[in-house]
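BUG-335 | component: ligand-complex export | severity: low

The export step for flavin mononucleotide jobs runs without errors, but we want the raw record kept on the ticket for reference. Input record follows.
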Amino acid sequence: MSVNLGTTYLGLQLKNPLLIAGCSLTGDVSGLRRLEDAGAAAIVLPSLFEEQIVHEDIQISQVQDFGTESFAESLTYFPELTDYHHGPDSYLETITAAKSAVSIPVIASLNGSSEGGWTRYAKLMEDAGADALELNVYFIAADVEMTSEQVESQYLALVRRVKQSVSIPLAVKIGSNFSALPNMAKRLVEAGADGLVLFNRYLHPDFDLERLETEPKFCLSNPDDLRERLRWIAILRNRIPASLAATGGIHCGGGLLKALLAGADVGTVASVLYKEGIEQVGKILDRLTELMEQKEYESVEQLQGSMSREKCPDPAAFARGNYMKALSSFPSQPI
Ligand SMILES: Cc1cc2nc3c(=O)[nH]c(=O)nc-3n(C[C@H](O)[C@H](O)[C@H](O)COP(=O)(O)O)c2cc1C
């Protein structure tokens, strides 16, 4: 039996539901060809960051105000950014080069948090040939005076602004830290998101005890990270008129199948490719096909969302239900 892996994401017809998440592996055009050859249905480019754009704007202003030193303090704030892999202009060139290198859709990624002039890059990304845009709203609400309502308004204003400037589809990548995530998801869609990418993985600082300094640490995911995505995708499936992408913890064909059963239109991978190589793309797709054949699914479309909250025989599993039962399965003494 042959299975149909085709799916639709952000209105794009895809040959299968496996995307490469934005990461350094998608930043190199020759690498993109390898990812396409391995079977990826679309790729998300690494992000262009608000800080990079603002940094460049400051540098341009500094050249214009040469001698005044008016931006010296702001410039020291971004010292390492000149070393980051792309400046804004070369990012746009990468989009164009990626489009001519591969025939699968290329999704550009813009990463920021405030509603500023930097968002003009959304339109520039569209003009450079991106098939869709992923807006990664990476915001840490560290101000004790800032309310959750203000945080949410900031997200929505940013999404509205970006959506107004582009005609390509817009996906919004968010973290899970909202007290009313489904309602926030609904309002993001009303603000213009054509799809949601769930979830961002935040950088958590660690402490270097020798030097008593903070050190940023970005860890690769593990398969257990997928479960938080399964919960929320299962809850959101068919509740908001938007595509859903699972990102975080898909490491094998079984993980991708779970994301689709919960209700994702696509799953994205990054960590597993760093850990085990690009050939994992093909292995994940082969395993997905094998599992679908075993379960007698003929198409991805047929199975998508069949374990979502509305379809699942045990909807309480996605809420508070089973919590006490799960805890009571642990022994009362350490082993
Ligand atoms: C090395 C690395 C670089 C990443 N860079 C970006 C980025 O530029 N923009 C972004 O939105 N996400 C970025 N991510 C996050 C991934 O897109 C993805 O959402 C996350 O890693 C979860 O998927 P995974 O469990 O398959 O790794 C990066 C992840 C890794 C591992």
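Assignee comment: Attached the raw record above. Confidence is low (pLDDT under 50) at residues 66-84.
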